[in-house]
Write a structure and sequence with these properties.
Blueprint lengths: L1 E5 L9 H17 L2 E7 L7 E5 L2 E6 L3 E3 L2 E3 L3 H12 L3 E6 L4 H6 L7 E5 L9 H21 L2 E4 L16 E3 L19 E5 L11 H12 L6 E5 L5 H10 L6 E5 L3 H10 L2 E4 L10 H8 L4 E4 L4 H4 L6 E4 L4 H12 L2 H18 L2 H12 L3
Parallel strand pairs: 1-2, 1-7, 2-4, 7-8, 8-9, 9-10, 11-12, 11-14, 12-13, 14-15, 15-16
Antiparallel strand pairs: 3-4, 5-6
């Protein structure tokens, strides 16, 4: 079976969506002997290139410009069409919500089954002008994309995005997953360390880092040796460094850049708590949460988007209201000051991952879905 994967970003880009796609591609190739071809944007240079990554053929297309996080090139329509004619895939699996590439592909698929994997709820981020544009896209273009798709795979419970309701008959949920060979618990020395993993970009203000820094400043009044590690890259790092200094926690805060694989797993194991303080429904799942749970770490997340689907409040983690630094600080202190409570949360989180989010289980579900056409 030849599968064409279409995604705006692909390995070696780091992120929850990129990890989801890459792990599925490798798994389908190695376990089920599928032939994988990928179309993605070229992030390193503005030119067309073709490369081989672990036996997968990857077409990288040059973008002319970006709007927010969306690479765009009107000429991709013709390039994608040529690649589809050349490769003759049995199935096309496009990934969204980042617009444009998945949209234009849906218009050139011909009779080839087109499956859309949708990774987010609403893309709105509480910014007036941006939300007006996104609202227009979701109402018209995204609806058209959903209509054209033979099947819609969501990585989250569809109920968090009402626009999906009328397509419920062709929706299947296949959640993100964890490779337990990489993300596993190891004994480490407790240090009162908090960990954030995610994008640190100006366009990703909805990740809630500001409120996390506010919460750390509050916790520091009670726990002087608190430490916050932020894993991720982006153009807002200096802004948050300055904000941390303003809050008097610059010596308690460390930015370590983007990490992946075993290096990232080590950071999870060195942490006491992993926190996802998002403020928008754009956070449809939170892969970092299940990676932390696989390492038996307690987690804290905002009660928004798909996070409550992952965190069972008081059982495997704590949920707090988005943008509420006081509540987040209280949750942090509860866990840091109660070792037995922290251990209980971590243990229950690990059980949930084993039962629901292992890479092996989600890969089987993906292959069965693809071969049903």
């Amino acid at each position: 079976m030849k599968i064409l994967i279409v995604a705006p970003y692909f390995y070696p880009n780091i992120g929850g969506v990129e990890t989801y796609i890459y792990n599925r591609c490798i798994g389908l190739k190695e376990k089920y002997k599928c032939e994988i071809v990928v179309i993605t944007s070229n992030q390193k240079e503005k030119k067309y290139s073709v490369e081989n990554i672990k036996g997968m053929k990857v077409y990288r297309l040059p973008h002319l410009f970006k709007i927010s996080n969306t690479p765009i090139n009107p000429f991709w329509y013709f390039t994608v069409k040529k690649i589809i004619i050349l490769e003759k895939p049995d199935l096309i699996n496009a990934h969204a919500p980042v617009p444009f590439l998945s949209d234009i592909t849906s218009h050139v698929t011909g009779d080839i089954p087109y499956i859309l994997t949708y990774h987010a709820g609403s893309m709105k981020k509480n910014k007036f002008v941006a939300d007006m544009i996104l609202g227009f896209y979701e109402r018209f273009f995204l609806n058209a994309l959903f209509s054209k798709s033979k099947l819609i795979i969501t990585t989250f419970p569809p109920k968090i995005f009402p626009q999906l309701y009328k397509y419920h008959k062709k929706i299947i949920q296949i959640s993100p997953a964890v490779d337990l060979k990489i993300f596993k618990a190891k004994k480490t020395v407790a240090k009162k360390t908090l960990l954030y993993v995610g994008r640190i970009e100006k366009t990703s203000e909805w990740k809630g880092i500001k409120y996390l820094l506010d919460a750390v400043a509050i916790v520091k009044k009670d726990i002087q040796d608190i430490e916050l590690i932020l894993v991720g890259s982006g153009d807002a790092i200096n802004d948050y460094k300055n904000y941390a200094k303003k809050q008097g926690i610059d010596h308690n805060t460390q930015f370590v850049g983007a990490l992946k694989g075993k290096t990232l797993a080590k950071q999870y194991n060195n942490a006491n708590i992993v926190i996802l303080p998002s403020t928008s429904n754009a956070e449809s799942f939170g892969t970092v949460l299940i990676e932390a749970m696989a390492c038996k770490k307690p987690v804290i997340g905002s009660r928004i988007g798909g996070i409550p689907y992952v965190i069972d409040n008081e059982k495997n983690g704590l949920l707090v209201e988005p943008k509420n630094a006081q509540q987040l600080a209280h949750a942090i202190k509860r866990i840091l000051k109660n070792g037995k409570f922290a251990e209980k949360l971590g243990g229950n989180g690990y059980k949930k991952v084993v039962e629901n989010f292992t890479l092996e289980k989600q890969l089987v579900k993906t292959y069965q879905t693809f071969t049903s056409f």
